[in-house]
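Query structure, 537 tokens:
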């Protein structure tokens, strides 16, 4: 055994671990940075990770029919993959780091035992990739559901961060009770600085999916990367031209099978002719564990055969069948009433593109929800149909659109929400408020209440107070000032609904009607006049 060669690959393995840790830490740092810091503008670094993702770049450009220039960074990932193989998956991807670490934990705790020979098909991620690409041709963006960056960012923004914040808040109560006020104050200050919202309507389902994806690693090491990741499939196809091919020295090899047994991605290093370059993430595990130092990665200019890229039979018949399946699936995602008539609850963030273009560009990453200082932006479940699941909408009962905030427009990585200054954002109408007179305190009880008018942020105020007479149960008449809405001035920010003292069902509520981004979602349509140009098209 050449110990110097084993040390070399062991060093590379340690460097890979350090790289994964660094990129995962960078991803979390940037994601935590997507919050209100006391400044009006927080910069664009929080979204930069997404611009290196070639699948998001390809699907967004194809589905939206627009070239988003920031996705030029994805070409770096493509070039690196062509030259060096799927190192992005093994050395950079933060979700890959989560799966690799959880696989390591499951192995150490004996929940996962490496099989002697792995025969499971790796076809699913290629089928998923073809379906995603086929859908993109017809404007359907499905990449965000299984893309590693979108999945991880959404999981942490909507579930993991809120759960940790809730747990730390509960711990704070214990610490104060034990008298350790210094530590408790430090935790409170950190939570306040990070402005982590702990109320998300879909937090449980998103968190359950994330925990399920992690738990799958107890069945197969890096299960997500092997069978589900469409980005890994795309990079696997590109990696067949990479310069570094695995080579086993037959004279040194003792045919122990350790390399294949401990391969994280089912790349099958042994025998050499069955090695699949499209599945190898160059983690160096096989080379570092080899007892005779028989494994190396010399430079080879010869492209790998497609049959060696993976064990997927990419025959013309299967390719056509899967493509047709992706195309046929498109209309099923759009069998929803929201395409005929806008949902009253679907209040999109300010700066959102018209609904069809918004859905074509939104990758459901949850960064806008993470950035919202009031927690008003929530993941959609049914309001926008199947293709709109996990896209953002404003839920005024949870939080309102802060008048002096435009953070959601700054952190969107694909331009589904246009970047706006605070001045421009305040000119955008995202909905309209309405008064339910059957529940409003002055109208029903004849008692004074001007909470909604006091909180209305626009100037002049969109909520006016007028004197009304209310006939009470005893027959007497009370005169109080009651709210009415100026529909021209209301921007639909939702603060009135959020602050209304009628707790169970607020007496004032906001719907999406009148939103600036739509020329049809209007209370009254004047067909005699020419429809004004939409600034978001």
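Result returned for the query:
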């Amino acid at each position: 055994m050449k110990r110097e060669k084993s040390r070399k690959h062991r060093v590379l393995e340690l460097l890979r671990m350090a790289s994964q840790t660094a990129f995962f830490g960078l991803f979390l740092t940037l994601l935590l940075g997507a919050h209100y810091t006391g400044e009006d503008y927080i910069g664009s670094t929080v979204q930069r990770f997404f611009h290196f993702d070639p699948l998001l770049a390809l699907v967004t450009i194809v589905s939206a029919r627009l070239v988003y220039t920031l996705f030029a960074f994805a070409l770096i990932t493509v070039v690196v993959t062509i030259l060096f193989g799927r190192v992005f998956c093994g050395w950079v991807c933060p979700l890959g780091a989560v799966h690799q670490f959880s696989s390591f934990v499951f192995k150490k705790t004996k929940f996962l035992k490496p099989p002697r020979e792995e025969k499971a098909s790796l076809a699913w991620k290629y089928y998923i990739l073809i379906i995603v690409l086929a859908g993109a041709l017809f404007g359907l963006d499905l990449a965000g559901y299984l893309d590693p960056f979108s999945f991880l960012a959404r999981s942490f923004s909507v579930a993991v961060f809120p759960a940790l914040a809730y747990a730390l808040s509960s711990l704070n109560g214990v610490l104060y009770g034990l008298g350790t006020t210094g530590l408790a104050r430090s935790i409170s200050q950190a939570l306040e600085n990070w402005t982590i919202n702990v109320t998300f309507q879909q937090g449980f389902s998103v968190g359950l999916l994330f925990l399920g994806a992690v738990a799958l690693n107890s069945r197969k090491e890096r299960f997500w990367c092997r069978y589900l990741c469409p980005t890994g499939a795309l990079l696997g196809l590109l990696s067949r031209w990479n310069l570094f091919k695995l080579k086993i020295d037959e004279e040194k090899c003792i045919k122990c099978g350790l390399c294949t047994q401990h391969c994280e991605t089912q790349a099958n290093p042994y025998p050499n002719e069955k090695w699949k370059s499209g599945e190898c993430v160059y983690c160096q595990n096989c080379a570092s564990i080899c007892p005779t130092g028989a494994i190396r990665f010399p430079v080879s200019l010869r492209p790998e055969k497609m049959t060696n890229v993976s064990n997927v039979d990419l025959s013309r018949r299967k390719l056509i069948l899967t493509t047709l399946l992706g195309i046929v699936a498109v209309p099923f995602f759009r069998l929803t009433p929201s395409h005929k008539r806008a949902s009253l609850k679907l209040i999109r963030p300010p700066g959102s593109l018209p609904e069809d273009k918004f859905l074509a560009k939104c990758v459901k990453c949850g960064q806008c929800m993470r950035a919202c200082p009031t927690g008003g932006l929530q993941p959609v479940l049914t309001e926008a149909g199947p293709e709109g699941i996990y896209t953002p909408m404003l839920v005024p009962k949870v939080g309102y659109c802060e008048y002096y905030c435009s953070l959601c427009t700054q952190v969107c990585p694909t331009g589904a929400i246009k970047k706006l200054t605070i001045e421009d954002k305040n000119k955008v109408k995202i909905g309209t408020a309405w008064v339910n007179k059957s529940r409003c305190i002055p109208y029903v009880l004849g008692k004074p209440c001007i909470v909604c008018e006091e909180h209305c942020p626009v100037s002049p105020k969109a909520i006016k107070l007028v004197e009304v007479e209310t006939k009470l149960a005893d027959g007497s008449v009370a005169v109080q000032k009651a709210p009415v809405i100026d529909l021209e001035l209301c921007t639909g920010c939702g603060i009135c609904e959020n602050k209304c003292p009628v707790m169970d069902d607020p007496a004032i509520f906001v719907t999406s009607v009148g939103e600036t981004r739509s020329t049809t979602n209007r209370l009254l349509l004047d067909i005699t006049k020419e429809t004004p140009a939409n600034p978001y098209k």
